[in-house]
Design brief:
The protein has 14 helices and 27 strands. With about 500 residues, it is of the alpha/beta class. The strands form seven sheets. Strands 4-3-5-7-6 form a five-stranded mixed beta sheet, sandwiched between helices. A five-stranded mixed beta sheet has the order 12-13-14-15-16, covered by helices on one side.
Length: about 500
């Protein structure tokens, strides 16, 4: 049954499978009919608020819960776009995101009230809302343009030192979800994991493809998401059929989850994305979960998944190189530009699921998007080669961006944080490759000579101002080397002895 809006997936499944569990979180669950009613009630409440307008942007800052999912669908049903942020991220980062994209209102969980300190108390109004544990925040400022086709904005690490917002319309998101339906079998008896936080693009498959199929979603809270033993246990407890996460999570489960103690024969699909999966642990996992089909999904936030590859089992014992990222998804087009003598070039993607662009960021839009052959292309910045069998092989990044724990990290954003320290006069951050798939983030700074900054002080400062996954592994105080044009000499830092 075709849809024009993401929330119609819920309405369709509620009509077909009203008594199926839609959401499961610990001991709490909600059927499709119950979820539909709560979403409709919240949508009506949102629309009744003063200052509401169709197409406005509504921020969501909350831990993962059933109420948070109600909030997401309530925003969509009200005709608005949602902007999710990590509830455990620094206040300044979340506040900047909400300011940068001009959110009009925020669904704010009561545990996140510290966020309100980002604004002057005279510029916000806080009211009750009929969503358990939440308040409704209105930012008292001039509204900028509304976008009636906007579904959500996901913020990623930005090369300017600030995160940038990747925008998606309903049509673009639906294009991806419909592609999922053509590749991965699922139905009303399926059970999906929801491991990724809602501000991470992996959550789009978790949330909308499962709802499309009338399946159940097991919401994994932040504490359990970092505990491999608990993850291994909940697969058996909830009989999860479709697992989707970064390779890091799967590697931790393999190493520390004692998966041999659990019955995981329920698993039908194991999907992974966000970073390269080293072959040895992947091989071991395919042997442990031999009945499941494994897929390597690749794609930046701007395209969601744009290539895919089913892992052919068994993986030969002598293989060491990572598996291909596969072929272009059928609803998209791909091309490789600026190919060098080795056959390596930059992968570019075009098609109906590619983002509209970055919110209010003309420089990034002009840098990453171009028109050619009658199509609009997104330049991923990822370098690939094409194997003899036509599959794409990922070889690295064109720029300095890396992935760690499945998150995209731009060292420039970390540098911007270091520069905000009152005693720092110069800073540089490098990502040192310690193995083909592992990076160590190293931070260097020079300070005002009147006062020293200890490594412990700098680490504490970063923990307060950056997401945990962006905090450097190494901190060193030193003079920052420069090139002849007075730019930071990153190559010099990389060449230095450790």
């Amino acid at each position: 049954m075709g849809v024009e809006y993401l929330h119609q997936y819920l309405e369709n499944s509620a009509a077909q499978y009203p008594h199926n569990n839609a959401l499961i979180c610990g001991e709490e669950s909600l059927s499709y009919e119950e979820l539909k009613i709560k979403v409709s009630d919240l949508s009506a409440s949102i629309k009744s608020n003063e200052g509401f307008a169709i197409g406005c942007r509504i921020g969501i800052c909350a831990p993962k819960s059933i109420s948070t999912v109600i909030g997401i669908f309530g925003v969509l049903k009200a005709g608005c776009g949602y902007v999710p942020v990590g509830h455990d991220m620094p206040v300044d980062r979340n506040g900047y995101i909400f300011d940068q994209c001009g959110v009009h209102h925020i669904l704010l969980h009561s545990s996140c009230m510290e966020l309100l300190k980002y604004w002057d108390e005279t510029s916000v109004e806080v009211r009750p809302i009929n969503l358990d544990g939440f308040v409704w925040v209105t930012l008292l400022r001039e509204s900028n343009e509304n976008k009636q086709d906007l579904a959500y904005i996901l913020y990623t690490s930005g090369s300017t030192g600030r995160p940038k917002g990747v925008t998606f319309t309903h049509d673009q998101a639906i294009s991806f979800v419909e592609w999922c339906g053509s590749v991965f079998d699922a139905g009303p008896n399926s059970v999906f994991s929801s491991h990724a936080p809602f501000h991470f693009d992996l959550s789009i498959l978790d949330l909308y493809y499962s709802i499309r199929q009338g399946a159940s979603i097991v919401l994994i809270d932040e504490a359990s998401a970092k505990n491999p033993r608990q993850l291994a246990a909940l697969i058996e407890t909830y009989q999860i059929t479709h697992w989707y996460s970064t390779p890091t999570v799967l590697k931790l489960m393999l190493r520390y989850g004692q998966i041999d103690r659990y019955d995981h024969t329920c698993l039908q699909y194991v999907l992974f994305a966000g970073e390269v999966f080293p072959v040895d642990p992947l091989r071991k996992l395919t042997e442990c979960w031999s009945q499941a089909r494994f897929y390597n999904l690749y794609g930046p936030t701007e395209t969601n998944v744009c290539t895919y590859h089913e892992v052919i089992k068994p993986i030969p014992p002598g293989r060491e190189e990572p598996l291909p990222i596969g072929k272009i998804c059928e609803h998209l087009k791909g091309r490789v530009i600026d190919v060098d003598d080795s056959g390596t070039g930059e992968l570019c993607i075009s098609g109906p699921a590619v983002t509209s662009g970055y919110w209010k960021n003309d420089m990034a839009n002009s840098d990453k998007f171009f028109a050619s052959d009658g199509f609009r292309w997104y330049a991923t910045g990822d370098l690939v080669t094409i194997a003899d069998n036509g599959l794409y092989l990922y070889t690295g990044r064109k720029d300095r961006m890396i992935k760690k724990y499945g998150f995209r990290i731009e060292p420039m954003e970390i540098e911007a944080c270091l520069h905000r320290h009152p005693l720092v006069v110069d800073a540089a951050v490098i990502a040192r490759e310690v193995s083909p798939t592992v990076y160590r983030i190293e931070a260097y700074w020079s300070s005002r000579k009147t006062e020293d900054i200890s490594q412990e002080d700098m680490r504490s400062f970063c923990l307060k101002n950056l997401p945990y996954y962006m905090v450097p592994d190494v901190f060193r105080e030193r003079d920052i080397p420069k090139t002849s044009t007075d730019k930071t000499d990153y190559q010099s830092l990389l060449r230095e002895e450790e």
